[in-house]
Structure formats: structure tokens, C-alpha cells
Amino acid sequence: MKKVLLALLLVTALPAAAQTPVISWKESPRWGSFQVTVSPFAPNIDSEFTNALPYAAIFGTDRPLMVQLQFNKSVWITEFGTLDVGGGIGYWQIWGQGIYQDSAGNTLRGGTTSLMILPVQLQAGYRWEWFYERFSVPFEPYVRGAIIDDIWTASGQSGTSSWVTSNGTIQRGSGGTFGWSFTVGVGLVLDFIDTTLSRQMDYDIGINRTLLVFDFTRSSVNNFGSSKSWQLGPSYWAWSVGLQFVF
User: Fold this and answer.
1) Where are the alpha helices (H) located in 30-156, listed in sequence order?
2) What CA–CA distance (Å, rounded) separates 121 from 69?
3) Cβ 41 vs Cβ 92: under 8 Å
4) Is 147 exposed, middle or buried (0-12, 13-18, 19+ CB in 10 A)?
5) 75, 103, 113, 166: which is deepest, by most CB within 10 A?
6) In sequence order, what DSSP letters do the residues of 144-181 get, joined into one string?
7) Rg for the chain, CA atoms, rounded
8) CA–CA separation, 43 vs 127, rounded Å?
């Protein structure tokens, strides 16, 4: 009788065991990344002058935040890391008070003026993912180089600034200045905080991982050393912080 009851229990348990799903997960195919960062910024325009410091006199020493967006395509993915190429665009603006000289040569304060810079760049970078992939250490160092075109506009109360040269030519306070930048940084992989949520994001919208990024950038934006240009890059290693989404 005991053998019959044991057999019945085993038969009853088999269908339940057979219906239990086996859950498996595989990371979605890697395509690229999107990044947004913010950074305090001030151009080093005064480095082009020996006596006067026109930028500091007009705009002061504040460093408003620059916001930048970057979009990259992963062109080479290995067990050690990923090579990305892509582009980016940013926005930065500062306000000050203009300066002019009257007929007697006295320096006076004028109306409100502003300087706006839209940095556009083409870039290539390498993100070293070996620590996270091999040992689950949630840090991914990276390097990036870029060619930059800073599109700038100097404006007054009546719009874009303009002036007349000694030969009667009208010049407008706008243009574009080319240069380069080099970045070193590290990303903290946030997926380790909640792996279930990160896998669900990958399943729902294809985000493989999310990183909190922190980096330092050295740049020179003066038409590659042209004597007729000014320096729109900062005079220091500029830091930035942001988020990167790998998909």
C-alpha cells in the first residue's frame, strides 16, 4: 500500500515539475551608445592678449555649465572592449556687460552682451570593458579623441554684434573655429546595483547597460594654432559628469 501511495505522489508531482519554466537571458546585440554630460566651461580668449583681458572684463570669471550630447556607433567589439565612432553637439552661453570708448577716450559700460558656443564634433573612442565582463568589477575606463568645430555668436541687445572696419567692411560677430580634444575617463556600471532591472531594460528597450561617467578633457580650439584665430578651448583639463546608455 505504501508503494502505491508513493507512486501516486510521484505521478502527481511530474506534471507540475514539467510545467515549471526554465528562464534564460542573453544580452541583446550591441549597436552603439548615447551620452549626455554637463561641465563647467569658460573659453581662454584672454590668452591671445598681452595687456588687456577683454573676456574677463566683459563676462567675469564665472564658468557656466556646458551641456553636450554624444551619439556613437560601435564598429569593433572584442572581449576586452569596444571601439566607437560618432559625433556630438553641445550648448553653452554666458552674459555680460559690453565695454566701449567715448569720443574723449573714456572707457564706459554699455548694454548687455552675450557669447554663445555650439561645439560640434566628430570623435572616436575606446571603452575598456574587460574588468566588468571578466571579473564583474563595475568600472569601465575609456579614452576619446575628437575634431571640434565651435560655432559661436556674439550678440548685443539688438541681436548679433557687428562693426565696421577702417576700410568700411562690415564684420559680424559670428563664425566657426576648429580644434581638437582628448578625453580620459571612467564609467561606473550601474547595472550591478539591480541586475534584474537592468536585464528588464535590455529586454524592453534594448539598453545593455547604463554608466555614470566622469572624465577630464584637454582641448585647443584656435584653428589649429592660426595667428588670426582666438582660443575657444579652456586653459585647463575640463571635467564633466553624465550618463551613458549602451544599446
Assistant:
1) 54-59, 130-135
2) 10
3) yes
4) middle
5) 113
6) EEEEEEEEEEEEETTEE-EEE-TTS-EEESEEEEEEEE
7) 28
8) 28
Contact partners, residue 25, CB within 8 Å, separation at least 6: 199, 203
**Measured distance CA(94)–CA(109) in Å, rounded:** 17
Distance CA(29)–CA(50), nearest Å, equals 55
pLDDT confidence bin for 51, thresholds 50/70/90: confident
- 44/47 Cα distance (integer angstroms): 6
pLDDT, tens digit, 9 for 90 and up, residues 189-211:
999 898 888 888 888 888 999 99
Domains of the chain: 31-246 (2.40.160.20)
pLDDT of 167:
67
Cell representation of residue 128 = 575598456
Alpha helices in the chain (DSSP H): 2-19, 54-59, 130-135, 195-205
Amino acid at 35: Q
Residue type for position 182: F
Range from 13-27, 38-52, 159-173, 195-209 carrying the lowest mean pLDDT: 13-27
Residues 6 or more apart whose CB falls under 8 angstroms from that of 185 comprise 141, 142, 143, 144, 213, 214, 215, 216
pTM above 0.85, yes or no: no
